[in-house]
Amino acid sequence: MQKQEQTTPTLRFSDFKDDWVSETLGNYFNFKNGVNADKSAYGRGHKFINVLDIISDIPLAYDRILDSVDISDDEFKKNEVLYGDILFQRSSETREEVGQSNVYIDAHKPATFGGFVIRGRPIKEQVPLYFHYLLKTTKARKDMTVRSGGSTRYNIGQESLSEVSIDIAPTLQEQQKIAEFLGTVDEKITQLQKKKSLLENYKKGCMQKLFSQEIRFKDDNGNSFLDWEEKRLNQIATKTASIVTADSLEGRYGNYPVYGASGIAGYIDSYASEKQHISIVKDGAGVGRVFLCPERSSVLGTLDSIIGQSENQTSFIYYWLSQLPFRPFITGSTIPHIYFRDYGKKRAKFPHSDEQKKIADFLSMIDNKITLVSEELDKAQTFKKGLLQQMFV
Question: Is 156 strand, coil or helix?
Fold first, then answer.
């Protein structure tokens, strides 16, 4: 055991007073690399933990593991993953991802693990979930990444993991209390993620039924709307000019947002559109991604800006375009492009303006709910990040 540091976390439960202990991971775990089976062995057999399982925020359990591998019982026994084992990502193209970890919390069913994974088997009594959170702290992650090596691909080995420095709550009781508290925060995050996913799936299902006319709205008097009419997109929507380039945006500040392929790219002191408008990524990565941009905003030249004949129609066209498959309109071999002159000729049946408004208002209501849940989720994740910084040394 190394020398005790006279230090405590910023945030600590009041009934614990002992100093935390500076140790290395090698004092708490034995490490082992995973299974390297023939390619034909995958897809059947024993449950198999790979890198994608590790990078999940949710602790690992048998029923949540998707992959499997066909290995002998002896090989499985040598590479078992049991309750309390920590699994580490051994290799990655980026240094920041090396050493990411997750904990196995299934006490009833063992699994196995792959060659790009290192298993940490506890050799000292500990609270597994406490280590799960400890190894996600900035200090532990930084120590792991600086110990990784490589040029085009970064790796961390068993010996390097053993030397990673950690600061430990000295009693199992304090470890347990911290783990339980952070566990309740994770439960809240998981609930919000499920709620968001359910709303997104509900919206997707509604859009399919609305645009196929499987379900229809009535007017305010309870009467059916007129039949939908076949038109080209360019008969109800107009492309507007973009005035902003990436070069002209650099170093400029203002009150009006400029949208790029990933959302807001910056702000300037003028704008291209007085009206709410739709932007569509037309060049490079993300071609066909659709945004609904507010009034008094602009887009980069890599995006098309489109408006309808009215604000209600623009909102409707946004949702219609969101479910349009753009692949048939993509051109270019090295850099993909789409052009309004092509996808603007797309023919489809469109409802009349009053029904368009009903559809857009309904889908907008679902979007507002998704936004509220997303904001709650962001706050919970930020809260957890702050706790990890304050509850550990």
Answer: coil
Please give the distance of CA 286 from its chain centroid, rounded to a whole number.
16
337 phi and psi angles, rounded to 5 deg: -135, 155
pTM of the model: 0.85
pLDDT tens digits for the chain (393 residues)?
444 444 689 899 999 999 999 999 999 999 999 999 998 999 999 999 999 999 988 899 999 999 999 999 999 999 999 999 999 999 998 999 999 999 999 999 999 999 999 999 999 999 999 999 999 999 999 999 999 988 788 999 999 999 999 999 999 999 999 999 999 999 999 999 999 999 999 999 999 999 999 999 999 999 999 999 999 999 999 998 777 888 888 777 888 999 998 889 899 888 888 899 999 999 988 999 999 999 999 999 999 999 998 888 999 999 999 999 999 999 987 899 999 999 999 999 999 999 999 999 999 999 999 999 999 999 999 999 999 999 998
Q: Which residues form the domain of 183?
A: 172-220+354-393
Our count of domains for the chain comes to 3
Same domain, 146 and 269: no
In this structure, are residues 142 and 165 in contact, taking their beta carbons and an 8 Å threshold?
no
DSSP 250: T
Per DSSP, 150 falls in state: -
Q: Checking DSSP bridges between strand 256-260 and strand 298-299, what pairing results, if any?
A: parallel
